[in-house]
Amino acid sequence: MFFGNIDRRTVGMVLLACIVISLLLSGEFGALLLTIPGVIIAMTFHEYAHAWMADRLGDTTPRAQGRLTLNPVSHIDPVGIILLLFAHIGWGRPVEINPNNFTSNKSRATCELLVALARTCNELYFSIYIYGNLLCIMVFRGCYMVLV
Fold it and tell me: Whole-number mean pLDDT of the chain?
């Protein structure tokens, strides 16, 4: 590309160094350290839900591309992460599907809808799960404080 003989890893390290320096100078570094892991985990589960549902409906494209995994590296888009750091808007690498590969007895439109809704159901499940755990922690902590 336009970098000549410079390795992609070198460019990535230079960009990472620039990001860290700018964040240290802006004072948002602590908040970012707490936010970035959660965003990466959410992005990973988000994209995995799409890949899982497409695979369940018979499309082998996500499996062939190595997207049917909970490894965050396969779901992170470098440009999306950099913009997340600087502009507070970002994205993961989208899961590619081929509607012609669906082997389900449902129509193509229904299968595509199910792949799109898998993300929403996944995020709804996790929000209820986390809320339930926090509620249990608050209740048991409150009971413990009353007993003591």
Answer: 81
